[in-house]
Design brief:
Blueprint (H helix, E strand, L loop, with lengths): L2 H6 L7 E4 L7 H11 L12 E7 L7 H9 L2 E12 L9 H10 L2 E9 L2 E8 L3
Length: 129
């Protein structure tokens, strides 16, 4: 299994939705997930319950709390959000304190953080599940 996919905790057969992808996102991460799950990632309009939601977010993209609350509606039981933000030194960096506060306000706990190339990933799980 690819390193990115194993670090993200995705497995064959998982349903993964990708939200907020843009030209600056790392397609290697998305492709690694598709290879691991054996399917394409669902787009932003999909309504299937997801095991993982990959949320690309940059400073200036809007309100992180609102986005997390909106995205959470797509999570299936035991699901999680991987919040991908630009790494230190990149344009659009989101301060770790903002991620932690936004996650808490949206009802999530940050369970893990990892660096994926030039992106910082924060694994968020719902507190009330």
């Amino acid at each position: 299994m690819d390193t990115f996919a194993s670090r993200l905790g995705v497995n064959p057969g998982d349903v993964v939705q990708e939200i907020g992808w843009d030209d600056d996102a790392d397609s290697a991460i998305s492709e690694a997930i598709e290879d691991a799950i054996g399917a394409e990632l669902l787009d932003e309009d999909a309504e299937d319950p997801c095991d993982t939601i990959l949320l690309w977010f940059r400073d200036g993209d809007g309100d992180l709390v609102d986005d997390l609350v909106d995205v959470a509606r797509g999570l299936g039981p035991g699901g999680r959000i991987w919040l991908m933000t630009p790494g230190a030194g990149s344009a659009g960096v989101v301060p770790p304190s903002e991620i932690a506060e936004s996650a808490q306000l949206a009802g999530f706990t940050q369970t893990k953080a990892d660096r994926f190339g030039s992106w910082q990933g924060s694994c968020l799980t719902p507190r009330n599940r």
